[in-house]
Amino acid sequence: MMMSMQDKIEGIMESVRKHHDLYRNALPMIASENVTSKTVRMLLASDLSHRYAEGEVGARFYQGCKYIDEIEEKAIVYAKELFGAEHVNVKPISGVNANIAALFALTASGDNIMALSVPEGAHISHAKYSVPGIRNLKLEDLPFDSTEMNIDVDAMKREIKAKKPKLILFGASLFLFPHPVQEARAVADDVGAKILYDGAHVFGLIAGKRFQDPLREGADIVTSSTHKTFPGPQGAIILCKEELKAEIDEAVFPGTVSNHHLHHVAGLAVTLVEMMQFGEEYATQIQSNAKRLAQYLYEQGFDVLCEHKGFTESHQIAVDVRSFGGGDKVAKDLEKANIITNKNMFPYDKAPENPSGIRLGVQELTRLGMKESEMHAIAALIKRVVIDEVDENRVKDEVIELKNNFCHVHYCFDEGDAYENPIL
Ligand SMILES: *Cc1c(COP(=O)(O)O)cnc(C)c1O
Q1: Which atom of ligand 1 is nearest to the CA of 173?
Q2: The whole model's pTM is what?
Q3: Among 17, 258, 269, 340, which is least packed, fewest CB within 10 Å?
Q4: Are 207 and 279 in contact (CB under 8 A)?
């Protein structure tokens, strides 16, 4: 029998409804995700999502952009204010898109750049099979100390002098401690290297004046997603020095974006305002929650990396779970109990399929109002699944009970229910 249009649409709606139910009843601990405020969610459904506004504020290729200009201008002004940036571009539609634009703006085919490898924490867009590959760049290793889970500063300085890279790429996806931007600056100047800091994971912490301040420490350019610790709509942003304005803007439009996503720009502007007001309180709570979760897990018998240096300064913690079957098995077992995490490669891993670890992020739970005592409860739930091997369905009931008190978005002006949606 043929399915009617109504049935097909109802089928899609039913999947979305189930997705919402899953997240209402789950602990979302993927380190790259977050929830937006009600205002932002409503803006994402505004007429802005239908429009085109190619070009710059005040110089568009289409008519009808009068108010879009006002919105984009506000996003730029608020971002400059919050991050102390000389120039801002809010058009890239994802973090990878921002990295493509930045790397095309700052390098030429055949140049060498220095970056981390993926097992050491780099994002795929820093690796040869992504942006550096399509730009035909030669990748030099940024030396990494896997005991400290950070860049080895002395070796880095030596390597910059020896390899004379055109660009040094900081920032990571497994990102526990601030990168040595300041230490690289003087040496970079000696060899004429630019510094690009990819802040995708930690942008909300930077907004809250925590973790590090890459522009003041010497980065020429900062790229970032706007939806990880920075709790805005999906999208990206580039901050840079005034002298790079022309190259960056051209690399974004017309280089790598035609129409940017105007509803996301409006949502970004609102999130910037939220972070001006609540950013410090939010970032402080994230750091405290991450440290506490790490400490509790460590006390329960987990091999949480970097105990000797307080586990983490970011929203993430890294747990080696080889003795419990590896990252793939553990992440899947936790999912059965509605604890959503991801397997993660660590520096000593070779294959991405079953890596040693899991990565846990607390930024979204923090945005939903969780504090230190909830971190304690979550550590106990994780132990029950992974170490005690209790039936996941029993743990799931406890997860649901805990989570149902934390469905409202905090650190914003309209603390709505994150999963409520009028059409579902
Ligand atoms: C997530 C991430 C990106 C890519 O962001 P998208 O918005 O998913 O394209 C870039 N760099 C780093 C370090 C990341 O972690």
Answers
A1: 15
A2: 0.98
A3: 258
A4: yes
Q: Burial, 308: exposed, middle or buried (Cβ in 10 Å; 0-12, 13-18, 19+)?
A: exposed
Q: Are 372 and 62 in contact (CB under 8 A)?
A: no
Element (H, E) at 331: helix 327-336
pLDDT, residue 286, reads 98
Ligand 1 mean position to 123 CA, how many Å? 6
Q: How far apart are CA 281 and CA 327, in angstroms?
A: 32
CB 98 within 8 A of CB 224: yes
d(CA 371, CA 362) in angstroms, rounded, equals: 10
Both structure tokens of 254: 């017309």
pLDDT per 10-residue tile (average), the chain, 424 residues = 92 97 98 98 97 97 97 98 98 98 97 96 94 96 97 98 98 98 97 98 98 98 98 98 98 97 98 98 98 98 98 98 97 98 96 92 98 98 98 98 98 94 90
Alpha carbons 362 and 316: distance in angstroms, whole number: 7
Task: Tell which one of 123, 142, 345, 363 to mutate to probe ligand 1, the residue whose CB is within 8 A of the most ligand atoms.
Answer: 123
Q: CATH fold of 41-273, please?
A: Aspartate Aminotransferase; domain 2 (3.40.640)
As beta bridge partners, residue 88 has 239
* Residue 291: closest CA among 210, 215, 401: 210
- Alpha-carbon separation of residue 160 from 110, 115, 141, 193, 203 (angstroms): 17, 11, 10, 9, 26
CA 213 / ligand 1 centre spacing (Å):
19
Instruction: Provide the residue ranges of all domains of the chain, joining segments of one domain with +.
Output: 41-273
The predicted pLDDT at position 2 comes to 84
- The pLDDT, as a whole number, for residue 150 is 98
Q: How many CA atoms lie within 13 A of 226 on its CB side?
A: 31
CA distance to 11, 24, 200, 234, 404, per residue, from 17 (Å):
10, 10, 29, 21, 16
Q: How far apart are CA 320 and CA 272, in angstroms?
A: 35
Burial of 66 (0-12, 13-18, 19+ CB in 10 A): exposed
Ligand 1: centre distance to CA 170 (Å): 13
